[in-house]
Structure formats: structure tokens, C-alpha cells
Design brief:
mainly alpha
Length: about 450
């Protein structure tokens, strides 16, 4: 015990806040940009498989299930992140190790659930959305392999979160970049059959993705064993600890449910759009790929912010918590303004990357300009969610996301669809984001008074 008490304090409690936030966030922003780049590259190559955009539409319809899977992994990771960093701030090193091993156990159990879904539910999932046999076939081929080989994704995200939890975001960036670059290199080779590989289409896109995720997981495991001295990943004699799992999910489950709500929203929104034309669903899918290039850096910023807030909550350092939150909001808003400008000035060029037809271009250019106006408020809302999670108020995050998706967004989309004009539906996003922003301001003030002001 004496040896543990003499450990030097982690940099999250002593380094100047701005330098700390940047040092932890910039590697995560870079890795998130690479992550979003390979998601975009995936769709760019798939869009060239057939001239009728069946494969691109298939990936758009697969996105809710894929997003749910990632949401479960990230949600569990957020719970591990917040609990482990808080334990580190409290200098409870035994709890740090137990939270890490129980987190790995939860990731493996989550993988088993989605593996079973891949075997039994992937084709049904597409049949519920469209009666196009070409879209169903291409989508099933993609989602089947994404699910049954998702062990790489679950392990990669968990290992990255363990690195982030102790402030080692540089190594997290390297592991994620290694996976992303592997995917980017393999995509054209496996999709179009280059270098002696057979032409595999959407199956090739899926296999390139899961191989990249597995490479990222292996690199992340190595970095945790080699450099993450605060954590021991030994599973010898491991038994699941219900108390720790409960505490991980106290923060992580609301985050997982937020991802689930997002998947349900995308699924429902696709149904509204596809009732007009499949081109609208393809435009929506392209928009989601493109917006990730704007949102992912903000998520990277949040990944750097969350352990700082959680650590200083455990260490009861009020000033560092407030300054970190204010700086994060400033940087997030700046990123979103740059994204807004790109969507306003270059929508045609963005759509051209996806081999857009004239019909898709005519619908997509105004759509991208309208939808992207929600970026003006989204930066605030995204940071609010992570602040709630880092401070242990995961239920508040869940309430805010549920309000956005089901009280604001989907009802507005349904009402606008009654006009009979698909182009009007795009205004759903800025309208819902404005309402979410107002609600978020009220909630952040309430949490500040309850958790921080009295500290």
C-alpha cells in the first residue's frame, strides 16, 4: 500500500489544462479523422460497384445495425473510461485493474450477441427495409461478415479506451490509425479483385473492414501490455464482478442506449425517405458518411476531455473541471463551423466523390446545405453529452439524446413528410438541433449546480 501511495500524480491532475486537453485530444482527433476517412473511402469504392447505386444504398441501409454495434462497444468503453479514470484519480489502483478486466469481459459478451445476429438476423433486417433483391443481397453480404467477425472491433475499441483512460492517447491514435490504414489499403484490392484477389464487391468491403479492426485490436493490446503501466490486463483467476459491471454500465449503458436510439432514428428516417425514392436514402447515407469527417474530430476532442473531467472529479479539482469543459466547447464549436463552411461551399464536389448520378446530385446539393446548418448547434450538444457522462450523469445524456431523436427529430420528420416534398424533410435536422441545444443548456446548468458548484 505504501508503494501505491508514493506513485506520482497522473498528468491529468497537474498539467496546465489547455496543454493537457490538446495533448490528449489531438492524437484522438487525428485518429478519428483517419477513422472517418476510411469509412468514406469504403463508400466511395462501393459506389463504383454498380451504376444503379444498389450497393451504396445497401450500405446506407446497413448503417443502423452497424451503428448499433459500434454504439454498444463505445458505450461500454465510455463506462470503462469514466470509472477507470475516476479510480485512478482516487488512487485506487486495485479498482483500476478490476475495471479493465471486467470491461474486456463485457466487450467479449457483446461480440457474442452480434455474432448470433449476423448468423440469424442480417437478411431479415434488410428484407424489412426494401423489396429490392439487389439491395437485399448486397446488404446481407456486407452486414453478415461485419457482425460475425466483429471481435476485432469490440477488442479494438476496448483497448483504445483503456489507453485513453490513463492519458495515453498517442498510443490509441497509433492503434486506430494502423487499423484504418489497413482497411484503406485492402478496400480496392478486395472489392475489385486486384493483385490476384477475387472480385468480392460488398463482401470485400466488409472483410477489409474487419481485418483492419483486428489489426487495430492487436496493436492496441500490445501498447496496453508494453506501455500502460497503470493497468494490469491479467485475466488469471478472473471472475466477473457484478458491482464493477454495474458501475461501468451506470455510465456506459446510457451511452450504449444513446447509440441504440441513434440507430433506431436512422432506421426510421430511412423508411420515411425510401417511401419517396431510394435516391433520398442514398443521399442520406452519403451525408452521414461525410458528416463523420466533421463530427469525428469533436468525438476525438471528447475522448480526450472525458478522462480529464473524470480524473479531476475524483481528485475534487473544481477549477480544472470548469476550464476543461469551457475549452472543449470552444474547440468543438470551431470544428463545427469549419464543417458548416465546407458543406455550404462545396456540396457538389463532396457528392461527386460518391459517383453521384444527376438525380442524386440535384437532390443532394440542397440537402447537404440544409442539413449541415445543424452543425452550428451540434458542437455544443455533443460536448454536453460527454460532460454528463464524465461526471457520472449518464442518465442525463440519455434523456437529452432520447429527446432529440424521438421528441424532436422523428416527429418533425414525419410532419414534414406530409407535405409530399422530400426536400422539405431535410429541415428536420436544424430544427431538432436547435431544440436540443436549448434543452442541453438547461441540463448543463442544473448538473453544474448539483455536482460542481458545491465542490
Amino acid at each position: 500500500m505504501e508503494h501505491e501511495e508514493k506513485r506520482p500524480e497522473n498528468k491529468m491532475g497537474v498539467m496546465p489544462v489547455n496543454r493537457l486537453l490538446l495533448s490528449m485530444s489531438i492524437p484522438m482527433i487525428i485518429s478519428m479523422l483517419v477513422q472517418s476517412l476510411y469509412n468514406i473511402v469504403d463508400s466511395i469504392f462501393v459506389a463504383r460497384i454498380d451504376p444503379h447505386a444498389h450497393s451504396l444504398t445497401a450500405l446506407s441501409l446497413a448503417f443502423p445495425a452497424q451503428s448499433l454495434m459500434i454504439g454498444v462497444a463505445v458505450g461500454t468503453g465510455v463506462g470503462i473510461n469514466a470509472f477507470l479514470s475516476k479510480s485512478l484519480g482516487e488512487k485506487n489502483y486495485a479498482m483500476v485493474n478490476r475495471s479493465a478486466t471486467n470491461g474486456l469481459f463485457l466487450a467479449w459478451m457483446s461480440y457474442l450477441v452480434f455474432m448470433i445476429f449476423g448468423f440469424t438476423g442480417a437478411r431479415v433486417f434488410f428484407s424489412l427495409q426494401t423489396d429490392s433483391p439487389e439491395v437485399v443481397s448486397a446488404g446481407y453480404d456486407y452486414l453478415y461478415w461485419i457482425c460475425i467477425l466483429s471481435f476485432g472491433m469490440f477488442n479494438q475499441i476496448t483497448f483504445e479506451r483503456l489507453l485513453i483512460s490513463t492519458g495515453k492517447t498517442f498510443y490509441s491514435m497509433i492503434s486506430q490509425t494502423a487499423g484504418a490504414l489497413t482497411n484503406i489499403i485492402l478496400d480496392p484490392i478486395m472489392i475489385f479483385g486486384l493483385l490476384g484477389f477475387p472480385r468480392m464487391g460488398t463482401v470485400g468491403a466488409a472483410l477489409a473492414t474487419v481485418i483492419g479492426q483486428t489489426v487495430g485490436a492487436i496493436v492496441g493490446l500490445y501498447f496496453n501490455i508494453r506501455f500502460n503501466r497503470e493497468i494490469s490486463l491479467s485475466m488469471k483467476g478472473f471472475r466477473p464482478d457484478a458491482g464493477i459491471i454495474k458501475r461501468i454500465y451506470a455510465v456506459g449503458l446510457p451511452s450504449t442506449l444513446m447509440g441504440s436510439l441513434g440507430s433506431v432514428m436512422i432506421f426510421a428516417f430511412n423508411q420515411i425517405l425510401i417511401s419517396f425514392t431510394s435516391t433520398a436514402a442514398a443521399v442520406f447515407g452519403v451525408y452521414f458518411k461525410l458528416q463523420s469527417f466533421v463530427l469525428m474530430p469533436v468525438f476525438g476532442l471528447n475522448n480526450g476531455m472525458v478522462p480529464i473531467l473524470a480524473y479531476n472529479l475524483g481528485a475534487r479539482k473544481k477549477e480544472r473541471i470548469v476550464k476543461t469543459a469551457k475549452l472543449s466547447l470552444t474547440y468543438a464549436t470551431t470544428i463545427m463551423l469549419l464543417g458548416f463552411a465546407a458543406f455550404q461551399f462545396f456540396p457538389a464536389r463532396l457528392l461527386a466523390m460518391f459517383n453521384a448520378t444527376s438525380e442524386m446530385m440535384a437532390m443532394g446539393v440542397p440537402a447537404l446545405r440544409i442539413i449541415s446548418s445543424h452543425f452550428l448547434f451540434a458542437g455544443f450538444c455533443i460536448v454536453f453529452l460527454s460532460i454528463f457522462q464524465a461526471l457520472g450523469n449518464g442518465k442525463v445524456s440519455l434523456f437529452l439524446v432520447a429527446s432529440r431523436q424521438f421528441i424532436f427529430l422523428l416527429p418533425i420528420a414525419w410532419l414534414l413528410s406530409l407535405t409530399g416534398d422530400v426536400n422539405v424533410i431535410w429541415w428536420t435536422f436544424p430544427a431538432a438541433e436547435c431544440m436540443t441545444f436549448v434543452l442541453g443548456l438547461y441540463l448543463i446548468r442544473r448538473v453544474y449546480v448539483q455536482r460542481i458548484k458545491c465542490m
